[in-house]
Amino acid sequence: MKIYGLRIWVDDMAAARRFYGETLSLTAKWDMEMAVGYDLGIDLIVERDDGSHEDENLVGRFVGTSIQVDDIQATYEALKAKGVPFLGPPEKMPWGGTLAHFKDPAGNTLTLLQ
Q1: Are 38 and 21 spatial neighbours (Cβ–Cβ below 8 Å)?
Q2: Spatial distance between the Cα atoms of 101 and 30, rounded to a whole number of angstroms
Q3: C-beta of residue 114 within 8 angstroms of C-beta of residue 70
Q4: From CA 22, how far away is CA 89, in angstroms rounded?
Q5: For the segment 47-85, what is each residue's pLDDT rounded down to a tens digit?
Q6: CB-based burial label for 110 (10 Å; 0-12, 13-18, 19+)
Q7: pLDDT 10s digits, 22-48
Q8: Strand-pair category, 98-103 with 91-92
Q9: pTM for the full model?
């Protein structure tokens, strides 16, 4: 077994395509009307919530996903300059890693990790 993909739910696919494809510069592996798969080693599947999960609050939540980068400070500065909203600057964790949390246009929180 292996992980194929991670789904992130959004409410505006046009804004999500701009954010993930242009702002984050992720490469789309596949693209459909309601979903796009971006290459992060596994597919990061950005999918529009069609309303069929209305009781589940899929959009605008902490995703629990860490995107590993080589230089978190440089990535943080570059994305911040592009207008990506961060919850704070990169912070060294007691276990040794450094994290910085940011939001996508749908309000989902993702994490950079070094």
Answers
A1: yes
A2: 26
A3: yes
A4: 22
A5: 998 777 666 788 899 998 899 999 999 999 999 999 999
A6: buried
A7: 999 999 999 999 999 999 999 999 999
A8: antiparallel
A9: 0.89
